[in-house]
Amino acid sequence: MTLLPELYMLLFSVFFLFLSLGKKKMSVFATAKILALTGFAVTLVCSGARGELFYWAYRVDFFSQVFKVLLSAGFTLMIFMFEKEDEVENLTEYFMFLGFSTLGLMILVSSVELISIVVSLEISSFSLYAVVPLRKAQTVKQLEAAMKYLFFGAISTGIMLYGMGYLYGMAHSTYLADVMTKLPQFLTNPLGVLAIILALTAFFFKLSLFPFHFWAPDIYEGASDATTTFIATIPKIAAAALLIRLAMLASVEPVPLATVIVVLAAFSMTLGNLVGLVQKDMKRLLAYSGIAHAGYLLMGLLSFNREGNAAIIYYIAVYLFMNLACFYVVMLISRRGENVSVNDLSGLSRRSPLLALTLAVAAFSLAGIPPTGGFTGKFFLFVSAFEAGYLAIVIIAAVNTVLSIFYYLNLVRVSYSRESEDPQPLHLAFHEKALCYIFNLLILFLGLLPFGLLDLFRRAV
Amino acid sequence: MSPVLTMNPFGFPILSTVIFLPLVGVFFILFLRDERKIKGVAFVAGLLTFLVSLVLFFSFDSGTPLFQFGERLDWIPAYHISYVLGVDGISIMLIVLTAMISPLCVLCSWKAIATRVKEFMVCILLMEMAMIGVFCSLDFILFYVFWEAMLIPMYLLIAVWGGPQKDYASLKFFIYTLFGSVFLLVAIIALYLANGTFSIPEAMFKAYGFQFQCWVFLAFAIAFAIKVPMFPFHTWLPAAHTEAPTAGSVLLASILLKMGTYGFMRFCLPIVPQASFYFTPMMVVLSIVAIIYGGFVCLGQTDMKKLIAYSSVAHMGFVTLGIFTFTVYGFMGAMLQMLNHGVTTGALFLMVGIIYERTHSREIYDNAGLGKLMPAYVGFLCLFTFSAFAFPGTNSFVGELYVLIGAFAKSKTTGFFAVVGVVVAAAYMLRLLKQIVWGRDDERDLKDLNIREWVYLLPLAVFVLWVGLFPRPFIRIMENTLMHLQMQLNRVSQ
Chain B residues with CB inside 8 Å of A351's CB? Predict the structure, then answer.
């Protein structure tokens, strides 16, 4: 029972592994959808599981289960969004890799020991390295992206291991709890602070936080829409989980660390939003938006208390849905899997009013305009950072909100007030419409009625 | 329930009804396809809202300065955010004004909006909901959500149904307003951390430190000054007004601009009184600059809509001037001017819309010499322009008189400059009127007002004359709240 979600994900991947060996007779998409949905149900059912496994290296608690549910929800939605036969090669293997990657992330959110963290992170990363080049539409870009992703990922893992070596040397233990109880000693030592930052590199890399963001735009642009959707949302959830886990275990308020976080957050959001202003390609734009959002997310870490941590979980949940909504619009516009530029959106409100509405809701949510979830999440983050006394970062984030509105609003503007040269109506199938409505309702629900989920997240941290 | 909020005497939550009736209209519209039916439903929803708001108006107890018709629900208990509604003498009239203007906006777009009627009506109704919500909220976050939620339909109104430069105008409008709002949010969080609650009444007249007050005031002021708009933040206004469709201009002028001055009265004065006193010279100077600068810019305009847009800057200068005199007369004048400007300027935009539908031009010269062709139109125009420059017997005269009394009581120089503004207003408004009525002689085939246009101009005209000749009922309803506010301000200043 305690390991059921992970085991199920393993089965999911192994099933597709065997499927890829035989002749394809059954519909891969339908199978994947059914299996993913079952997986989500299983994860939900197991959300009450508790336990410590593998010599206390693996902790199944409410916190980890909440994240597993989020991961599974993201994965399921992503599987439901993705249904273009000709977008990627080796479809069955593709699903297998995605399954393995999600499995790694699920293990990651439960790991409380350095080695298991590294192993689970690598399970996830290696699957993704394999997935990036599987795009059909272009030949050069996705290879470039795959190489970059591999190198950046490997280097960031190397740096992480280097930092973990220091941590082990100073704490004489690989258990996170032991490391964090030694935190006061680390903080008096500049090397200690450096070690923690280095050890976190791989997670900053996954979150595409400044200065580990360089990969994001190229990989988003090069990888197929479905792959990008996965990379842009699901690993970020797990990375945020690990950061929160560390913050939960911190015994004292680590002031020097907070300073580093403030600087990284400020640079990340400012850089992401400024560069986002000039982007023409939708996916590149969303990459820079992701860099900025990593900065917002980090604000919640500053308070090192329950409110801040719950705010991060809330924001990452909102971020998952609004980002998926944006990518879904991109996917549906590019019928043949080619990249969508901002100009391709022109006339969208005539071609398909529902898609234009979904994009508008998601964009306003990303920008943080009420009554969407993006506002509510950002508001919680602002309050927690302000409460901890970091007014400067709150003001920087507020100004950044204004900066970012330029390009988010631009998406709405192009789709609503530009006319397209070729106004062919986009016909959506029933399930596509349903998914759009689900995204819209979820984003508005998270914006207007946050109390239930928020209480849940507060219990988790 | 806090002592400043009296319970709702009705058996049902009347304020929520007023706020969410337009949303019910939206719900019905979503299922309709026939454009006539859509328009009809939108109008009926607006009309019902207006009727309920009249119930509110007539059962309002003007003898008490407390917040009335209170409703309270927990919303996000973890952050002490609740759904609290209540109205007092400051907000009640603005709610009625909003509810009155919105159905008129539906009427005036009956023919003018030919494309995407459904979305247009949804936007108007959503605007109405958010605007009434802003005036009713007694919780900062609730207020902020309504305040920001207003941006989206307004943006769409300009960006989708606007004029040739709609792209530029709508973007400018959105970014200006959002820029102010984020500072408002930071100030709200600061107040929350000081008070432990987002309740607005509980944040009033607390002994905050002076420095804290100054920062909060500045954050509030930038948000509200952009919305009013006060000089130097006014540049979004002419662009947005000119490009917006008629209904959008009317909503902008009549209600949205009032949000800024409402914010000053509801937040700046009671929450950070000492900082408000401290910054009074700055605010007064900016108001005077707005009055005179706005007036002179109007003199040079050839586009009717632009002229009226700039005249809004001048008129709103009177409102902020009245607020920052800190006298009961000044407050009353400001409140009255908010209503008057809402009615008069809204009506003037409607007039421009009417003529634009016929001649497809907003240039004064293209529309000159209508005196003989459209006598009824010119009659209404006459009334509203007279009201715009505060001719005795019209509503603005009463309002401006009160503001001037307040201003002269405060300082003679201020009063003098304000009077200059009044004279300039007469000049630019009469210039407009003269051109339109007698500008040139030619024969054109223009139809005079039809019944629909009569229907939406008449209530406004009645209001203009009613307040002009018998303002007592309107004064009475806000009197107690304003006197109470002034008393408390006096207590703090000593």
Answer: none
